[in-house]
Amino acid sequence: MDQILVYADSLTWGIIPGTRQRLTFEKRWPGVMEMELIANGASVRVIEDCLNGRRTVFDDPYKPGRNGLEGIEQRIEVNSPLSLVLIMLGTNDFQSMHAHNAWHAAQGVSAIVTAIRRAPIEPDMPVPKVLVVVPPPITRPMGPIADKFEGADAKCLGLTSEFSRMTTEIGCEMFDSGEVVSASAVDGIHLDEKQHFDLGSKLATVVRKILGTP
């Protein structure tokens, strides 16, 4: 069985835009991906590690534990053996309390990939492959999270090109989610239920190729 770890934030946790509610597993893109992989004959288990507000390598000044680099090596240990890790982070790096741009987010993800590759797993367990998923571009933040993400639409410009340059440099697979989904029209940040389905379906195809499964 191939175990796949999804390491991400609220876009993947499945927050329903404009609310504090959560989509059920089968409606979140990791669940959609798992079900489609299994339906196509793959033997897989998808493990979600998705935290609302998680940054790449930066701290949230108001909430502890949102630095995505801290503890990632232990998460790889805990969940090994892993065949693949999917990382979809960067959106929260552009919150209004940060002066970060697309380059900073890309370098943050690079640091996480490096940490995954050096994690102290048990002897003879595989170093997992990594797939970096570029979050969809932020549009105009709206609703209760508007102040939190003020200016984020400008800060995230060039995210795909920076992620592409970074993943090429470190030899890592990349998929641009913006090819199939966009930020929700409700809040300009998260994914609607239909977008979760579309992303999960597409990533099932991408993951099959990476793992060499049917």
Automatic annotation (TrEMBL):
The protein's name in its UniProt record: SGNH hydrolase-type esterase domain-containing protein
InterPro entries (alphabetical): SGNH_hydro (IPR013830), SGNH_hydro_sf (IPR036514)
One of the record's GO molecular function terms: hydrolase activity, acting on ester bonds
CDD domains the record matches: SGNH_arylesterase_like
Span of domain SGNH hydrolase-type esterase: 9-185
Species of origin: Stieleria varia
